[in-house]
């Protein structure tokens, strides 16, 4: 999952240290290429959601997109590339949403770290509901080989960014643990939102979780 961030960057995703999990796709696309890639991602999300990653077939994805299999390989290099592209799409949208919220809150004069953190958490959770099909897919333990390691790497970066937002001293173990607990609460709630029956239930969960975060971040002593 992504975190509550202002700018996380994407180089760690596109160029991981071991070189195994790159996106294998062009840096930019315009016009017809964007349309083709969008159709492929939409079809991949449908098929992955119905059959799981392991049982999803490239021929079915290409057929639903109305695009030759060869074009799928040209744009994404195969099933792994499609899955990672969906993950990046989800992550980047969540980042844009939370970053915009933090900017707006600061523009209103909010500078309290806890208030900013909770506002960012709310934006992230609302995004998880709006993009629940993608969120459900990514939460499953059925991704390409090596994806769990990539996700753990990103989760660690999420904790560090939340620590900075909360102005927690990362050198203190107690501070690190506290931020990790808060981050885990948000991630767990985001997964639950994927199973909500309707928006009313989802927003009740968002309100509940934000209340928990306020309680957990309240000064002690």
Explained architecture:
Residues 57-76 bind DNA. InterPro entries: Homeodomain-like_sf, HTH-type_TetR-like_transc_reg, HTH_TetR. The protein has 221 residues and is mainly alpha-helical. The chain folds into two domains: 1-21 and 87-221, Orthogonal Bundle (Tetracycline Repressor, domain 2); 25-77, Homeodomain-like (Arc Repressor Mutant, subunit A, Orthogonal Bundle), CATH 1.10.10.60. 71% of the residues lie in helices and 0% in strands. The protein has ten helices and no strands. The protein has helices at 11-14, 32-55, 58-65, 69-76, 79-107, 113-130, 132-139, 147-165, 173-193, 199-217. Residues 5-29 have low confidence and may be disordered.
């Amino acid at each position: 999952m992504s975190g509550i961030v202002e700018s996380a960057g994407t180089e760690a995703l596109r160029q991981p240290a071991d070189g195994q999990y790159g996106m294998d796709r062009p840096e930019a696309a315009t016009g017809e290429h964007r349309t083709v890639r969008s159709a492929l991602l939409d079809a991949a999300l449908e098929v992955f959601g119905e059959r799981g990653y392991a049982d999803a077939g490239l021929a079915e994805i290409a057929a639903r997109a109305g695009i030759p299999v060869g074009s799928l390989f040209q744009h994404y290099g195969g099933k792994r590339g499609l899955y990672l592209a969906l993950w990046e799409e989800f992550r980047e949208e969540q980042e844009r949403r939370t970053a915009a919220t933090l900017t707006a809150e600061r523009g209103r004069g909010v500078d309290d770290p806890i208030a900013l953190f909770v506002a960012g958490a709310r934006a992230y959770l609302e995004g998880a509901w709006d993009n629940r099909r993608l969120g459900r897919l990514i939460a499953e333990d059925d991704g390409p080989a090596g994806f769990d390691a990539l996700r753990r790497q990103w989760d660690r970066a999420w904790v560090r960014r939340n620590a900075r937002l909360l102005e927690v001293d990362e050198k203190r173990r107690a501070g690190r643990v506290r931020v990790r607990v808060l981050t885990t609460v948000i991630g767990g709630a985001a997964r639950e939102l994927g199973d909500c029956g309707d928006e009313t239930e989802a927003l009740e969960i968002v309100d509940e979780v934000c209340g928990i975060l306020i309680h957990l971040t309240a000064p002690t002593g």
